[in-house]
Amino acid sequence: MTKLREEPLQHLEIAEYLIHNIRSSVYEVNQKIPSENELCRQFNVNRHVVRQAIARLTNLGWVTPLQGKGCYVNHIPKPILYVLSSHTRFSENMESQGVQHKSKLLNWTKGLPTSLEKEQLTLEENEEVYRLEILRFIDEKPISITTTVFPESEVPNLDMHFSDFQSLYGILLEHYQLRPIRSSSTFQASLPMMKDAELLEIPESIPVVQIESIMNHPSGYPIEFSVARVRGDMHKCLVEF
């Protein structure tokens, strides 16, 4: 029998015990974890505590419950290394690791910027912007959603090149001879908004890493402001100086 702390932390300790056993391959992918009854006996707790622990594992994506059959261990993909540097490009990052990837343009608008966008891009009064929402995939799994904003004056008629969208920076390079240079990025962990959780196919309890970035024109002034929301369970970041 395993001794636990007093409630309300008991279910967290049981969840951590199970996660540790999954990580160390005590329970393999597609294998059933111990039943509620077995866990109740092992930890000397009631069924409510065990169900809280299993609900936590389910919400975090470690197991899938099957009605009347128990809970089975999921395949958890290894985090993808994403390198952030002054010249980072998503497609080049993935290709260098031999990872299958693609990007999907969810929607776009052209109009006046928000006050934050105007400030970050040092825009003049009434200067319009293109705003794009891009969903990116790795091995057919969604990994990030990025809202990216450009001054319309820097990329005139950008929407004319969206019909066969594959890579934003591919469009910029081919049609505008433009390769933005990262000047700064800020990171913040948060829980996803409901819409982002649906698009990323994760429960709302899985954290995302929000990355706000400013990209400069080669001449030195800001040309792109982006806010990426990246799945915290599929991503680890390397910042190169």
TrEMBL record:
Q: Which UniProt keywords apply?
A: DNA-binding, Transcription, Transcription regulation
What are the TM regions of this chain, as residue ranges?
none
Name of the protein described by the UniProt record: GntR family transcriptional regulator
Organism equals Bacillus salitolerans
Q: Which domain of life is it from?
A: Bacteria
Q: Which InterPro entries match?
A: Bact_HTH_transcr_reg (IPR050679), Chorismate_lyase_/UTRA_dom_sf (IPR028978), Tscrpt_reg_HTH_GntR (IPR000524), UTRA (IPR011663), WH-like_DNA-bd_sf (IPR036388), WH_DNA-bd_sf (IPR036390)
- Which residue intervals define the domain HTH gntR-type in the entry? 8-76
A Pfam family that this protein carries is GntR
Q: Upper lineage ranks?
A: Bacteria, Bacillati, Bacillota, Bacilli, Bacillales
